[in-house]
Design goal:
mainly alpha; elongated; 63 residues
């Protein structure tokens, strides 16, 4: 395996992980907006502070 192929595989894996994380944050935000989950719990499940959770969701919703 050449280094280029290894780097492509690594980048692909990192991209998948980022996508999962973003998907989880959006799902938690949707649950928060629906009133099914308090902000505290949604942020805790995302392993973020409430402020950072809301900032992240604003950024993701714009994208």
């Amino acid at each position: 395996m050449c280094i280029t192929e290894y780097n492509e595989a690594e980048i692909l894996q990192m991209t998948r992980e980022e996508g999962r994380t973003e998907g989880n944050i959006i799902t938690l935000y949707d649950l928060y907006c629906d009133g099914a989950l308090p902000l505290q719990k949604a942020a805790a499940k995302a392993k973020m502070s409430e402020t950072n959770f809301l900032k992240a969701t604003k950024k993701l919703k714009k994208a």
